[in-house]
Write a structure and sequence with these properties.
The structure holds two protein chains of two kinds.
Chain A lengths: L1 E5 L7 H9 L4 E5 L3 H10 L2 E7 L7 H11 L4 E6 L10 H6 E6 L4 H13 L4 E4 L5 E4 L2 E2 L5 H12 L5 E2 H8 L5 H22 L4 E4 L2 E4 L4 E3 H7 L17 H12 L1
Parallel strand pairs in A: 1-2, 1-3, 3-4, 4-5, 6-12
Antiparallel strand pairs in A: 6-7, 7-8, 9-11, 10-11
Chain B lengths: L9 H29 L5 H31 L5 H16 L1 H8 L4 H29 L6 H21 L6 H21 L7 H26 L7 H50 L1 H17 L1 H20 L5 E3 H18 L6 E5 L5 E3 L4 H10 L10 E8 L2 E8 L14 H14 L4 E5 L3 E9 L11
Parallel strand pairs in B: 2-4
Antiparallel strand pairs in B: 1-3, 4-5, 5-7, 6-7
Helix pairs in contact in B: 1-8, 2-3, 2-4, 2-9, 3-5, 3-8, 4-5, 5-8, 6-7, 8-9, 9-14, 10-11, 11-12, 12-13
Classes of the chains: A alpha/beta, B alpha+beta.
Chain lengths: ~260, ~475
């Protein structure tokens, strides 16, 4: 996969970009804002994405994007900017090809995410429930802002498509907390889960009033595979360190004996 | 037009209109009697001028009617009642003796009599309509029998008027009706104190009503003396026209004043906003964060990267605040999370924040919640407490959204503390200027602090800048 990066000044801060991209499979090349040279390169090479700075002296990033997408049908755009530019500010044709924005200073995780999206298109969410619970988008672990929101998601996955009510969730996650406080903790976890999924670009949980429901389509989960009889490496551990996981172990062990 | 009389004071206007009408009536009667007693003959020039005056006045009344109807549809539908009055005035003018003389010539005795009868009928009809209108507009809830009484009284006085018409004593019928009206007005004043904002509408229509009564009475007095004093009706119409014109002038002036007020308001808001932005930059905070980042990099490059990203997000929000006033609540929460992450990075013991979010579909002034969070982090010492936390919650209630920022820290005595920090003052000023909302701070030593912000449904956000 080839990526080009266009900026009017190729300075030291590109070491960072090079460093992060260099660790992925992508090949990258820097360009100054010389429109003809870039157009030429794109016409001759199969370039997957162009990372474009927006304010450059010779050509503005938006205009450059418009010209470049006219040359190649595959080319996708990432705008690199210190400004507060949003998707809504773009022309529709450019918007369609724009994968995302990379704000300065760069966020390495965001950059890796963008590259993963460019490489593989829409990502699936992978959930690993055997052993300790972990979620991945591509190869990047999904970041939850609290442990309880992560645990809540695990419980929702364990429910396997059944809707999870607030009462159930509270009795499993906060069995010893007084009611009022546990409700606050529950809603806090729900909020953080919602944020984490939204940030990663997933819309797989329906947040109802006092209940949660999981849309299973975009998720790949080892536990579900195992239940269906597909190969998965169950080694006697399921969502380690979560108290409620014990209830699932006997059923899983029965399944293993067969 | 209805509400334009907002500036005038109720009592003064009542007294003023009362006196003006008494003077008017007196002047009319004296002029009529004097003219009759002296048997004066009018010069051709005088008659000609009165004709011109009468036609001019007709044009004015027509114009008023059009203005009132147009403004009823464009400015405020409370103007319908002034449109009604304007229509009545126009009819009055069409049937007054000056106008009829202008149309049919000096000898048109029949026209004059027909005019007088119509004049009386119009007066009755408009008085009843006005009462009906007041009843409807101010929800007076007048009893049904009041309507029967009014209708009955009108019929009786009309009958008396008709019966006595050719004996030249028809003024008795008129007086009967007038007494009934005065009684009705008195009843209204006594039993229905009109103290609400709508009063202005009432006063305006009342003033015009007196003017109508005055002009009708004068016409009747002239009629009773079998003498149509040339010019009396036209002169009587002049003050009414003046009332209308001055009301329009007052409206225009008020509109100007409001525009001026709005621009002053905007200026004031800009000052608050500038102060907020200045306050928000907090150089010491930025340098502290930079120092923290410096040491983070010594331990772990990835941690350093993350901290730089956080600081960048924080600065971006502050810069964004320079050209926007409102922000969706959810975005403000993101900004708050960034702030908390930055603070947690700097301080040893971390602050716990719980989000108890029921709804996010509303907007609030940008950077308006941050000062409360900053204060909670700085002063409540929740991070030192075993189960200390800051709670941000929103709850949809029937008539609005309740937004709470609470902590279970040390709290303070609101009375003992000097007016709270500049950040909080700015925030609360912006809440009140932009949304008409006042954040309430409840706190007591040892009990923690709660900030309650209640955003009513359909709170119209005021937008000054339209970037």
């Amino acid at each position: 996969m080839k990526i080009i990066i266009v900026d009017d000044e190729i300075t030291a801060h590109h070491t960072f970009l090079g460093d992060v991209i260099g660790k992925t499979d992508a090949e990258y090349r820097f360009f100054k804002d010389d429109e003809r040279e870039i157009a030429d390169y794109i016409a001759k090479n199969k370039v997957s994405a162009a990372f474009l700075d927006i304010s450059m002296p010779h050509i503005n990033g938006f205009e450059l994007a418009k010209k470049l997408i006219a040359i190649s049908d595959e080319l996708r755009i990432v705008f690199v900017t210190g400004l507060n530019v949003k998707r809504a500010d773009l022309d529709p044709e450019v918007r369609k090809r724009t994968v995302g924005f990379l704000y300065k200073p760069y966020d390495a995780d965001e950059l890796r995410n963008l590259i993963a999206v460019i490489e593989r298109g829409a990502q699936k969410l992978t959930a690993r429930m055997f052993g300790s619970f972990e979620c991945f988008v591509g190869e990047n672990p999904l970041r939850f802002s609290s442990n309880k929101s992560k645990e809540l998601f695990a419980l929702l996955l364990a429910y396997n498509g059944k809707s999870l009510s607030m009462t159930d969730a509270i009795s499993q996650l906060w069995p010893d907390t007084e009611t009022d406080k546990s409700k606050i903790l529950y809603r806090d976890a729900v909020w953080r889960l919602r944020k984490a999924l939204k940030e990663a670009g997933f819309n797989c949980v329906e947040f109802g009033r006092a209940c949660l429901f999981l849309e299973k389509d975009d998720i790949q989960c080892d536990y579900w595979d195992y239940l269906k009889g597909l190969p998965a490496d169950y080694n006697g551990e399921f969502c380690k360190s979560y108290d409620w996981s014990v209830d699932y172990l006997s059923a899983l062990d029965d399944l293993r004996k067969k | 037009m209805g509400d334009m009389k907002a500036d005038v004071k109720t009592k003064r206007v009542r007294v003023f209109t009362g006196i003006a009408d008494a003077v008017l009536l007196l002047a009319g009667c004296i002029a009529a009697v004097a003219a009759w007693a002296s048997g004066a003959r009018y010069s051709d020039f005088y008659l000609r001028s009165m004709e011109v005056l009468s036609i001019t006045e007709l044009c004015f009344f027509g114009l008023f009617l059009i203005i009132e109807i147009v403004s009823a549809f464009t400015i405020s539908d409370s103007t319908f009642h002034t449109a009604l009055v304007a229509a009545a005035l126009l009819c009055f003018h069409l049937t007054n003796d000056d106008f009829l003389r202008t149309m049919f010539g000096n000898g048109a005795r029949v026209g004059w009599q027909v005019g007088e009868i119509l004049h009386f009928l119009f007066f009755e009809a408009s008085a009843l309509a006005l009462f009906g209108f007041w009843n409807y507009t101010f929800r007076l809830g007048l009893p049904r029998r009041a309507a029967y009484l009014a209708a009955g009284w009108t019929l009786i006085s009309s009958a008396v008027y008709a019966a006595l018409y050719f004996s030249q004593l028809q003024i008795v019928g008129f007086c009967l009706f007038f007494v009934g009206l005065a009684a009705a007005m008195g009843y209204l004043y006594r039993n229905f104190p009109l103290k609400r904002a709508g009063d202005k509408t009432f006063i305006a229509s009342e003033a015009l009503f007196y003017a109508l009564a005055g002009s009708a009475l004068t016409a009747e007095v002239c009629g009773a003396m079998r003498y149509a004093a040339v010019g009396i009706s036209s002169f009587l119409a002049l003050p009414i026209i003046l009332v209308f014109l001055s009301v329009y002038a007052a409206f225009a002036m008020r509109t100007d004043r409001e525009a001026l007020k709005a621009s002053e308001y905007k200026l004031q808001y800009e000052r608050v906003k500038a102060r907020t932005l200045k306050e928000q930059i907090k150089p010491h905070f930025i340098f502290n964060v930079l120092a923290a980042i410096q040491s983070l990099y010594r331990n772990d490059v990835d941690d350093g990267d993350r901290a730089v990203t956080l600081l960048a997000k924080h600065l971006r929000t502050n810069i964004e605040a320079t050209d926007t006033d409102f922000i969706p609540f959810e975005k403000e929460l993101d900004n708050i999370q960034v702030l908390i992450d930055l603070e947690n990075m700097r301080i040893g013991k971390k602050v716990n924040v719980f989000y108890d979010i029921d709804c996010v579909d509303f907007e609030l002034p940008i950077l308006s919640l941050q000062p409360y969070i900053e204060n909670a982090i700085k002063y409540s010492r929740v991070n030192e407490k075993e189960d200390g936390f800051i709670l941000i919650s929103t709850r949809r209630e029937e008539d609005g959204i309740l937004l709470l920022v609470a902590d279970n820290g040390v709290g303070f005595d609101p009375a003992a503390v000097k007016p709270s920090s500049c950040g909080i003052r700015n925030s609360s000023e912006r809440f009140s200027m932009l949304m008409g909302v006042t954040p309430e701070i409840e706190s007591a030593p040892g009990k923690g602090t709660t900030v309650r912000i209640f955003i009513k449904n359909n709170t119209p956000p005021r937008r000054f800048s339209n970037y």
